[in-house]
């Protein structure tokens, strides 16, 4: 459970905060993104964030393929990453950790 606890806590906290902010927002997510990209200082942060999101997406894809998952299995995580950045990789880590735990329990039961 150790490998799931930290990403699960971060996922629940950040997703809850994101929902809260979106419910209170006075503008759409797209309008907010456009306003961020209108100034060089905030655009630099957004570009940096999406570069990191791209690296996370590449890692998720490669990790999933190493684990025998189909490429399509990663698509939901990539879509979440494209929109909410951190939520996609955090959810991927939680699901991956739960699957590892399940495999470990099944392997122990076979012995």
**DSSP strand content:** under 5%
Structural class: mainly alpha
Largest sheet: none
| Poorly predicted regions | none
- CA-atom Rg in angstroms: 17 Å
Order of helices and strands: HHHHH
Protein architecture, described:
The structure is a single chain. This protein is an all-alpha fold. It has one domain (2-110). Helix content is 84%, strand content 0%. It contains five helices and no strands. The protein has helices at residues 2-24, 29-37, 40-66, 75-84, 87-110. The radius of gyration is 17 Å and the shape is elongated. The relative contact order is 0.13. The mean pLDDT is 92. Keywords: Membrane, Transmembrane, Transmembrane helix. The chain crosses the membrane at residues 44-61, 73-95. This is DUF2834 domain-containing protein. It comes from Pseudomonas azerbaijanoccidentalis.
Present the secondary structure layout.
Elements: H1 2-24, H2 29-37, H3 40-66, H4 75-84, H5 87-110
Helix pairs in contact: 1-5, 3-4, 4-5
Entry summary:
It comes from Pseudomonas azerbaijanoccidentalis. The chain is mainly alpha-helical and 111 residues long. The chain contains five helices and no strands.
Q: What would the keywords be for this entry?
A:
111 residues; mainly alpha; 0% strand
